[in-house]
C-alpha cells in the first residue's frame, strides 16, 4: 500500500501528476462517482454534529468531493470552501454562496479541514501542488481542528519530500482504504 516517491519535490510531483492524468483518461465516470461516494461515506463518519467543515471543491484530477459537500450541507453542517487569491493564499466562502468572501482566517472556524494532496506520507506530510496555499491556510486552523487529506489509493507514500513550512495532516482518506490515522501528526 505505501510506496516510494523520488526525494526531489518537483520529480515527485511529476510522477504523481502523470499517474493522475493516466487515471483520468482511463477512468469511466461511474468509477469517479463510486469514488466520491466511498470518500463521502468514510469522511461523514468523522464529522461530529453540528460542525463547520472546510473542504476543497475537487478538480477533475483530484479525489472527488462532490458527494461529500452535498451530504454535509444536507446534514446541516456549515461548509466553507476555498477561493484561490492572486498571491496563492486561500480566502474562504460559504459553499452555497459563490459571491461571498469570509477572509483568509475563516478556516479557523472549522472543526474539520479536508485538503487535497498529490501524495501523503506515513508521518502526515503532504505533497501539494507547489503553491503553498494549504500550508499557509493550515497555520490559521484551530489547534483542535482535525486535518484530513484526500488522495487516491496509490498516492500513499513512505515519505514525501518536505520543506520546513510544510504542515502535517492528522489522517488521510482514500476511496479504497477509507480513513487512515497517521503517525507523525
From TrEMBL:
The keyword Membrane does not apply. Its EC number is 6.3.3.2. Keywords: ATP-binding, Ligase, Magnesium, Metal-binding, Nucleotide-binding. It is an enzyme of class 6 (ligase). Its cofactor is Mg(2+). SUPFAM superfamilies: NagB/RpiA/CoA transferase-like. GO terms for molecular function: 5-formyltetrahydrofolate cyclo-ligase activity. The keyword Transferase does not apply. It comes from the Bacteria. It catalyses: (6S)-5-formyl-5,6,7,8-tetrahydrofolate + ATP = (6R)-5,10-methenyltetrahydrofolate + ADP + phosphate. InterPro entries: FTHF_cligase, FTHF_cligase-like_sf, NagB/RpiA_transferase-like. PANTHER family: 5-FORMYLTETRAHYDROFOLATE CYCLO-LIGASE (PTHR23407:SF1), ATPASE INHIBITOR/5-FORMYLTETRAHYDROFOLATE CYCLO-LIGASE (PTHR23407). Belongs to the 5-formyltetrahydrofolate cyclo-ligase family. This is 5-formyltetrahydrofolate cyclo-ligase. It comes from Luteipulveratus flavus.
Amino acid at each position: 500500500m505505501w510506496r516510494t516517491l523520488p526525494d526531489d519535490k518537483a520529480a515527485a510531483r511529476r510522477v504523481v501528476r502523470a499517474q493522475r492524468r493516466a487515471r483520468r483518461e482511463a477512468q469511466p465516470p461511474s468509477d469517479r462517482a463510486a469514488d466520491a461516494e466511498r470518500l463521502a461515506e468514510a469522511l461523514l463518519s468523522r464529522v461530529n454534529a453540528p460542525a463547520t467543515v472546510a473542504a476543497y471543491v475537487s478538480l477533475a484530477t483530484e479525489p472527488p468531493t462532490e458527494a461529500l459537500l452535498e451530504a454535509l450541507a444536507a446534514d446541516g453542517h456549515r461548509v466553507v470552501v476555498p477561493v484561490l487569491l492572486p498571491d496563492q493564499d486561500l480566502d474562504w466562502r460559504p459553499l452555497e454562496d459563490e459571491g461571498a468572501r469570509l477572509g483568509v482566517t475563516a478556516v479557523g472556524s472549522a472543526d474539520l479541514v479536508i485538503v487535497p494532496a498529490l501524495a501523503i506520507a506515513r508521518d502526515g506530510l503532504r505533497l501539494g501542488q507547489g503553491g503553498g496555499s494549504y500550508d499557509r491556510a493550515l497555520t490559521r486552523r484551530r489547534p483542535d481542528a482535525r486535518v484530513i487529506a484526500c488522495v487516491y489509493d496509490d498516492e500513499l507514500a513512505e515519505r514525501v519530500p518536505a520543506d520546513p513550512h510544510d504542515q502535517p495532516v492528522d489522517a488521510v482518506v482514500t476511496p479504497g482504504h477509507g480513513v487512515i490515522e497517521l503517525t507523525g501528526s
